[in-house]
């Protein structure tokens, strides 16, 4: 059974005092309970199932769908056993973007969950008549392996699928019996006409798929209900509305406090991104270097993503076996070493492949902390490139909020980002920004960051400004060398 805003008399049903949030990540599936008033986590009401993606030769990076869903259901069982599934008024979902599963004629999966990290796809030769710039402006995406425009032709070449869906679509189907998707999740497939909120005809033609092969897109006001099976399993959730999922990038922005066009949210997790949420109506023309997806029926999110962030920090501290995860002996902007953080390559439209990270200016008196500081500085300068593009796009110096696990883990990196941006920043006090954002989108909340406020230090800003031209020149050299 489903309902929409119109079915409920034009208003969103008032939730109970708590919200159940499902967070569908790449490295874990989680269920947690939040306050419906401000989307703050309820202490102790968090269950997590660790996910281990399978990597293999040929570029595959997949998740076992059955294991993933059962792990998520086990998280709800754990919350139930600990008395956390009472007084729930809404169920919301935050999910990774870009995943795809091939389905047979009965709707059963033919493949594992193919994640954004999977490099398998097909090359497309669309001829000189294809206008990729117009396509990008309309869909917010490029013809890149991240998107279904290249995934679906590859899957069709490998077998005979009768349909396609993403991980959140199949989780939603398992819970409610209905295979539908949200405008937010659909936008991450690269097949959505952003302005109209429907599948794009040219994108489907390129993919070789018809609309009926994909999950139906439901409005943001849609809700489903848990199936009878799960009503018996979790009696406190009977009749509780299940809201459409929100893509994790959009959810993280809103959850961090960046929910309008005055504020850029910088989130640092395994990877990093800088994004701005804004109305979809009268949206500014999209620059080629930026992507754009949807938050919900009324809002879009525009930004840039970066492949090296928390993964870079974790790798380097492990390789160097540093006693501290902070380069506390190195002043921000002072390192002679320049690190170009292309270890995992670049996101589209740039084409630098993985394995292209470079250090310039090494000497025998450099320490592990120097290398760590240079790497975090390089990652900060990459994010700054995107921030300055967004400043230009929205015609103002944007306010900045910082959030994510990498932000929580490193006070030095927070200060480095603040100096690199050369403006004040506010740190989001809440680590669960994805779940918090999904609740805020579903319930119409505007959560405040609530964390520390950082002012840039003049001396640090000046040092970063001095190294910026050298970094830009060496970055170009590294990008050119990656093609040799």
From TrEMBL:
Keywords: Kinase, Transferase. InterPro entries: ATPase_NBD, Carb_kinase_FGGY, FGGY_C, FGGY_Carb_Kinase, FGGY_N. Residues 264-442 form the Carbohydrate kinase FGGY C-terminal domain. It holds the Pfam family FGGY_C. GO terms for molecular function: kinase activity. Belongs to the FGGY kinase family. This is Carbohydrate kinase.
């Amino acid at each position: 059974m489903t309902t929409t805003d119109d079915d409920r008399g034009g208003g969103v049903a008032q939730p109970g005092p708590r919200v159940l949030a499902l967070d569908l990540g790449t490295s874990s599936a989680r269920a947690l309970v939040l306050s419906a008033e401000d989307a703050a986590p309820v202490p102790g009401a968090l269950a997590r199932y660790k996910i281990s993606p399978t990597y293999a030769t040929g570029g595959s990076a997949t998740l076992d769908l059955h294991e993933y869903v059962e792990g998520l259901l086990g998280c709800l069982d754990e919350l139930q056993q600990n008395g956390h599934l009472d007084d729930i008024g809404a169920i919301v979902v935050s999910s990774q973007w870009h995943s795809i599963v091939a389905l047979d004629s009965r709707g059963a999966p033919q493949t594992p969950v193919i994640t954004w990290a999977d490099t398998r796809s097909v090359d497309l030769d669309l001829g000189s008549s294809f206008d990729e710039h117009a396509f990008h402006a309309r869909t917010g995406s490029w013809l890149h392996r991240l998107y279904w425009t290249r995934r679906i032709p590859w899957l069709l070449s490998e077998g005979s699928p009768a349909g396609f869906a993403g991980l959140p679509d199949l989780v939603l189907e398992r819970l409610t019996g209905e295979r539908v998707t949200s405008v937010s999740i659909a936008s991450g497939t690269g097949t959505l006409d952003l302005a109209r909120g429907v599948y794009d005809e040219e994108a489907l033609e390129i993919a070789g798929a018809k609309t009926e092969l994909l999950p139906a897109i439901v409005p943001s006001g849609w809700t489903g209900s848990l199936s009878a099976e799960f009503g018996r399993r979790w009696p406190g959730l009977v009749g509780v509305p299940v809201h459409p999922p929100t893509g994790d990038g959009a959810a993280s922005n809103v959850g961090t406090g960046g929910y309008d066009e005055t504020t850029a949210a910088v989130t640092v997790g395994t990877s990093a991104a800088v994004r701005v949420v804004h109305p979809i109506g009268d949206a500014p023309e999209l620059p080629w270097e930026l992507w754009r997806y949807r938050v919900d029926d009324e809002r879009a999110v525009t930004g840039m993503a970066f492949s090296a962030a928390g993964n870079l920090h974790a790798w380097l501290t492990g390789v160097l076996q540093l006693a501290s995860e902070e380069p506390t002996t190195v002043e921000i902007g002072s390192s002679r070493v320049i690190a170009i953080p292309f270890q995992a390559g670049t996101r589209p439209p740039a084409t630098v492949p993985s394995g292209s990270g470079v250090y310039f200016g090494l000497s025998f008196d450099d320490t592990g902390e120097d290398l760590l500081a240079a790497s975090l500085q390089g990652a900060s300068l990459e994010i700054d490139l995107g921030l300055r593009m967004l400043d230009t796009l929205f015609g103002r110096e944007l306010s900045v909020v910082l959030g994510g696990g990498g932000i929580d883990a490193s006070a030095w990196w927070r200060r480095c980002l603040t100096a690199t941006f050369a403006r004040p920043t506010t740190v989001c006090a809440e680590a669960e920004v994805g779940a918090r954002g999904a609740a805020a989108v579903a319930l119409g909340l505007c959560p405040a960051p609530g964390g520390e406020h950082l002012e840039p230090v003049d001396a640090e800003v000046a040092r970063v400004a001095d190294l910026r031209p050298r970094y830009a020149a060496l970055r170009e050299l590294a990008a050119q060398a990656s093609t040799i």
